[in-house]
Specification:
Blueprint lengths: L1 H14 L2 E3 L4 E11 L2 E13 L2 E12 L2 E12 L4 E11 L2 E10 L2 E6 L2 E6 L4 E3 L6 H13 L6 E4 L5 E15 L2 E11 L5 E7 L4 E8 L2 E7 L6 H21 L8 E9 L8 E9 L2 E7 L11 E3 L4 E4 L1 E6 L6 H7 L2 E6 L4 H12 L7 E8 L15 H13 L4 E4 L5 H13 L3 E4 L7 H6 L4 E3 L10 H12 L3 E3 L2 H8 L18 H7 L9 H21 L14 H13 L3 H7 L2 H6 L17 E4 L13 E6 L2 E4 H7 L5
Parallel strand pairs: 10-11, 17-20, 17-21, 22-23, 23-24, 24-25, 25-26, 27-28
Antiparallel strand pairs: 1-2, 2-3, 2-16, 3-4, 4-5, 5-6, 6-7, 7-8, 8-9, 11-12, 12-13, 13-14, 14-15, 15-16, 17-18, 18-19, 21-29, 29-30, 30-31
The chain binds zinc ion.
Length: 651
């Protein structure tokens, strides 16, 4: 084992990566960090040797939209990479605080994390890793895995109490940079974060590149000299992940498809009319062929009947604010009853591939309506598509239009004249425009400049005040659509002392790595009452918008995957909407906002068969929206618990 390490080190010395000190060889590396492909910082790491102990130290540091994120980590291992201790402190994302201290003691790990200490029995093979950062820890994890016979599963801490990580070798490839060709091995790592990451090692076992997610958005690390190959890495990882989703699809049995009749359920068709008890829905080739009470719907001879007595059927739900940056979202959304999502900013290569794979039915998942992100230029810009001049605005809109995006999402740094250039060009090409209220503009100015939708609530003050009333009247007159993302505000704004499960039971069903992400979410230094007061101020504005006739649509900005859609709907009822109105915000109002209500949004004859079969009626209690039994997407019937389990959620 020690010999293998020496060989790696010798190869590294030969390559010039190593500085040989008086006593100890040192391996050093610099990775450039990217968010949505935009370079935002770097990770510098070092592996030093002292006798039989290797010490990896990493300094992970980036600035995202003006906010600094830093993490310091130290991993000590035996010469065969078996961990001895691991410490990580700082942040791995804006709202993800990391404070882990793990020491291996015999067959146990002493885990100090988030202010508590536990002794966790640790079955071999094991590793110590806490989320995607630092990448050097994942490099060491891969070296350990290779050194120990590529075990099927690794137990990792901190976890709940231990997490499981699965690694797969996915292939070898040559990357050409100028005249240099670098041979790389590609791996999929599943379980360090929720879902799969792609990591490349070179022939010396040095980390070449990694593609993962941070804060729910795509995050890439690339060794300095391989920087020109960034987009190639993204494309390669995208192909792997789409193949993974196709495999999940093949292994997920359809309960029904083609022609059938769902018989005996209560049907809440979403039009606002009364529920139909003992109803029938006839589905033929992906569409609703007939719907109504059993007594008045003729079921054609030979049509297979699916008994659904006691169930309630509602239209497929929408999430109007998401970033589907990993394929694992696809089964999650269907499992939660969500059959259409509006993607609000993503990696171009990934979202177009995923959208097309789902549309072709090669891959299961919600229908994806894509909004293309455009920011202003400069170092604090978000993503790599920006417009600082009218010409750049036209080019950016054209790129998204040509790739089938239905909307543009304007981000905070776009200047007022460029907002107008973007909306004019988008409207000319038949696209609508949503986005953040650009810096220096008011919500009225943004709407007046042509923004058809506004993301997030964006209205301060009290719902009853004259200012807020004026703003709401202005938005009503401009037919501006709002996705208030109140569940997101609640998730990050709740008092840190309040457990998330107190308002979001879905958090008890998420995989361990996601639990690590949300373990420290919440606002420090405020009590539960203050947090609730802030939330209620927002909910009163949601109610006032709704009452004034401003379309309010359900959007989450991700949050607790799938479950945040249900929470957003529940919050609208807390705001004072009726359960029917809250359900409509997640169905027909969303469909109308995207001009897709001719096909979607209600259970009506001729529309697409996007339906959710619930165990209980959400009009009785809105939380029954969580009781999804089957989801029907374009006529294909999926078992919700099976979908959840396929991506390591509890159903
Ligand atoms: Zn967002």
């Amino acid at each position: 084992m020690i010999r293998a390490v020496r060989i790696i080190l010798a190869a590294a010395i030969a390559s010039g990566l190593i500085v040989t000190g008086v006593q100890d060889p040192v391996e050093r590396g610099i990775l450039r960090l990217h968010y949505l492909q935009k370079p935002i910082g770097s990770e510098r790491y070092e592996v030093a040797r002292d006798g039989d102990v290797l010490t990896m130290t990493s300094d992970f540091d980036f600035t995202d939209r003006g906010g600094r994120v830093q993490l310091a980590a130290t991993l000590r291992t035996k010469a065969d990479f078996t961990p001895l201790s691991f410490k990580a402190q700082g942040k791995s994302y804006r709202f993800v605080n990391v404070d882990s201290d793990v020491r291996i003691d015999g067959g146990d790990a002493i885990v100090k994390a988030d202010g508590s200490e536990a002794r966790v029995p640790l079955p071999a093979p094991f590793y110590t890793v806490d989320g995607y950062a630092p990448f050097a820890a994942q490099m060491m994890l891969l070296r350990y895995w290779k050194q120990h016979g590529q075990p099927r599963v690794l137990h990792t801490v901190p976890g709940l109490p231990a997490n499981e990580v699965f690694i797969e070798a996915r292939g070898r490839e040559a990357i050409r940079i100028g005249t240099t060709v670098v041979q790389l091995d590609r791996y999929a790592i599943d379980g360090v974060v929720w879902g799969r990451e792609t990591v490349w090692l070179d022939e010396r076992g040095t980390l070449a590149a990694a593609i993962t997610r941070a804060g729910g958005l795509s995050f890439e690390a690339v060794r300095e000299d391989l920087e020109p190959a960034l987009v190639g890495f993204v494309q390669r990882a995208t192909r792997d992940r789409i193949a993974d989703l196709e495999a999940i699809t093949r292994h997920t049995a359809l309960l029904k498809s083609g022609t059938y009749a769902m018989v005996g359920a209560t049907i809440v068709d979403g039009t606002g009319g009364p529920a139909i008890s003992d109803g029938v829905i006839v589905v033929r080739d992906g569409r609703i062929a007939a719907v109504g009470p059993r007594a008045s719907v003729a079921i054609p001879d030979g049509t297979p009947a699916v008994p659904v007595d006691g169930k309630t059927i509602v239209p497929g739900l929408w999430d109007m604010h998401t970033h589907v940056t990993q394929v694992e979202w696809a089964p999650v959304y269907l499992g939660a009853g969500v059959t259409t999502v509006r993607d609000m900013g993503n990696e171009f290569e990934f979202i177009t591939s995923l959208r097309d794979a789902i549309a072709s039915t090669r891959a299961l998942g919600p229908r994806i309506v894509a909004a293309g992100l455009i920011d202003g230029g400069g170092p604090n810009a978000f993503g790599v598509y920006y417009a600082a001049t009218p010409d750049e605005a036209k080019q950016a809109v054209a790129k998204y239009h040509d790739a089938g995006f239905q909307q543009i999402k304007i981000y905070s740094l776009v200047t007022p004249p460029i907002v107008e250039a973007i909306t004019a060009e988008a409207h000319r090409l038949g696209l609508t425009v949503t986005g953040h209220i650009p810096n220096g503009m008011t919500i009225e100015q943004a709407a007046a400049a042509g923004m058809d939708h506004i993301a997030h609530l964006g209205i301060r003050g009290e719902a009853g005040s004259d200012d807020v009333k004026r703003t709401i009247a202005f938005l009503r007159d401009h037919k501006t659509v709002i996705d208030p993302t109140q569940s997101w505000n609640e998730l990050l704004g709740h008092a840190a002392g309040t457990p998330i499960a107190a308002f979001q039971p879905g958090v008890l069903k998420i995989p361990a790595p996601l639990n690590r992400v949300f373990a420290n979410a919440g606002a420090a230094g405020i009590d539960a009452a203050t947090a609730r007061t802030r939330l209620e101020r927002g909910l009163r504005i949601v109610k006032a918008l709704h009452d004034a006739g401003v379309p309010v649509v359900v959007g989450t900005d991700e949050g607790i995957p799938g479950h945040s859609v249900h929470r957003e709907i529940e919050l609208y009822v807390e705001a004072g909407l009726t359960p029917m109105e809250a359900l409509q915000a997640a169905t027909i109002v969303s469909a109308r906002a995207m001009k897709m209500d001719g096909e979607l949004g209600t259970i009506e004859r001729g529309k697409r068969a996007d339906l959710v079969v619930l165990n209980a009626n959400p009009l009785d209690s809105i939380s029954n929206i969580r009781s999804v039994r089957w989801t029907i997407s374009d006529g294909r019937v999926y078992d919700a618990p099976t979908l959840w389990r396929s991506v390591r959620f509890q159903p």
